[in-house]
Amino acid sequence: MSAESEQQAHHERVGRIVAQIRKMAGTVSAPVKEREGVSHFVPLPGRASSNRPKLNLKELNHILDINVGRMTCTAEPGVTFDELVRETLRFGLIPYTVPELKTITIGGAVSGCSLESMSFQYGGFHDSCLEYEIITGRGEVVQCSPDNRNDSFQMIHGSYGTLGILSLITFKLLPAHPCVQMRNVLFHDFDSFWNYMRERCEQKDVDFIDGIIHAPDRLVVCEGRMVPAEDNLKLSKYDWLSVYYQSTLDKRVDNLALHDYFFRYDAECHWLSRTVPALEYWPVRMLLGNYLLGSTNLIEWSQKLSPLLKWKRRPDVVVDVFIPEHNFVRFFEWYQKDFDYYPLWIVPYRAPRLYPWLSDEHAERMGTSFLIDCAVYGKPNDDPRIDYSELLERKTYELNGIKTLISRNHYDETTFWSIYSRPRYESAKAGLDPDNLFGDLYQKFKPRN
Ligand SMILES: Cc1cc2nc3c(=O)[nH]c(=O)nc-3n(C[C@H](O)[C@H](O)[C@H](O)COP(=O)(O)OP(=O)(O)OC[C@H]3O[C@@H](n4cnc5c(N)ncnc54)[C@H](O)[C@@H]3O)c2cc1C
Q1: What is the pLDDT of residues 308-334, one digit of tens each?
Q2: Which residue stretches of the chain have pLDDT < 50?
Q3: How many domains, the chain?
Q4: What is the 384 CA–ligand 1 centroid distance (Å)?
Q5: What CATH number is associated with residue 406?
Q6: Where would a tag sit more exposed on the chain, N or C end, judged by fewer CB atoms within 10 A?
Q7: Which residue has the least CA distance to atom 32 on ligand 1?
């Protein structure tokens, strides 16, 4: 298809969504955004969406343009990172930030959250975005960039679809080599682990960095450098029989193709596959891997089984919290003593600046835009005396951090709006969704159980 016909087809797809929105205006509140594939929100009891009206966004999954000269890409929000990386790699280019699960979409990454092992240099995916096309709550199509409606442009990240519908995103690309040479540096105490990781982040002498705390005395910094493909480079794969996160304890060096590196955690959905212990044995993986492994399969299974969650006291804790770098030591001291669940995934995240959706008071308390993402994936939460999800939220607040909203939330309204900037959110709402078709951010995530 020529560039003009791509554009024309995009306008027609957007037109069909505009028509749905105009029909809904004034009669509907907070429609469910339907798209192809799975959502990376933790299925929770009591959050049924089946009775709510649906806004069909399924058509918005095309890459319109990869501009090699300018090193930019323009794509619709339903494009997954797996598809995106395959396409951009054909031109020797990659996005600045590639979340580790294959079917996270670029729209979900901008509206929700996204970071990974390049985030110590480049922040989140939204930090590489140059322009958004947004369909407002009144069905107008507007362009937002730093030079045009900058306030709306800045507020879209982390608004979780409550300000408008992203219909097109233009973002920057980076030149890449096709392989990654990894070093898994093992430490036996937290201080050495953290000093080493902090130094790499400051020196910026690696392309990728994240960490896996397997236990308080087994902490691994996983660092990687992009390298050209060479004939004698033996490449590992972690999409079937071998388990990536376990390999970081056993292998001090490793090499992966770049695409496999980006999605190295996908087969296990980090380590959520451990909820089915047999899945870590290779005969089971050999027989059932096609049906059960991979974040999409695992999330689909957990959605099918979610009615069973109501028999559990509470769902397992699955959440990322961002701790200001200077409070990370205090956080881990507490975590070891009171939380004690491993592996704990550590991703250094240097945002280019503190985001305007944070309240001025919380931003001041944070005092830095260098954050440490501590990702807790799968802590059982059945103790009648302690709700670990709530405990983690409280500790994060006490240490002036931010909790992502991807699973259970416990904030009362006052606390929530002491972290998020209500005046700036309301101003963006007035500009993009004055009749509140898409619902309010706090109402979307307020405690439900
Ligand atoms: C188990 C698990 C593991 C995770 N691992 C990682 C990881 O390794 N790296 C990482 O970066 N993140 C990770 N995440 C977080 C994930 O990136 C975020 O939850 C992200 O927002 C998911 O995007 P999605 O494409 O699945 O979109 P969805 O979950 O479908 O949507 C996310 C939000 O964006 C809104 N939205 C979606 N499309 C649009 C649109 N077109 N316009 C407006 N609003 C829209 C939705 O309403 C929703 O509020 C993980 C989450 C889970 C549950």
Answers
A1: 666 788 889 999 999 999 999 999 999
A2: none
A3: 2
A4: 30
A5: 3.30.70
A6: N
A7: 108
Q: Which domain holds residue 20?
A: 3-176+437-445
What's the confidence (pLDDT) of residue 449?
Answer: 59
Pocket of ligand 1 (CB under 6 A): 33, 39-42, 57, 77, 99-101, 104-105, 107-109, 111-116, 160-161, 165-166, 269, 272, 318, 377, 406
Do 116 and 11 lie in one domain? The reply is: yes
Measure the CA–CA gap between 259 and 88, rounded to whole angstroms.
Answer: 11
H-run or E-run covering 130: strand 129-135
**122 and 16 belong to one structural domain:** yes
- What's the pLDDT at 224? 98
Residue 209 lies in a domain: no
| Cβ neighbourhood burial of 247 (10 Å; 0-12, 13-18, 19+) | middle
Q: Is residue 307 part of a domain?
A: no
Put simply, whether the predicted model's pTM sits higher than 0.90 gets the answer: yes
10 and 155 belong to one structural domain: yes
Distance in Å, CA 250 to ligand 1 centroid: 31
Whether residue 441 sits in one domain with residue 384: no
Residue 42, pLDDT score: 80
* 441 and 337 within one domain: no
Q: Which residues touch 102 (CB under 8 Å, ≥6 apart)?
A: 80, 81, 82, 263, 266, 294, 295, 296
Do 14 and 135 contact (CB within 8 A), yes or no? yes
Residue nearest to atom 44 of ligand 1 (CA): 161
Please indicate, yes or no, if residue 336 is contained in any of the structural domains: yes
Q: Which atom of ligand 1 is nearest to the CA of 295?
A: 1
The closest residue, in CA terms, to atom 50 on ligand 1 is 40
Q: Which CATH number do you get for residue 138? A: 3.30.465.10
Helix (H) or strand (E) holding 423: helix 422-432
Calpha distance 131→144 (Å, rounded): 6
Measured by CA distance, the residue closest to atom 21 of ligand 1 is 112
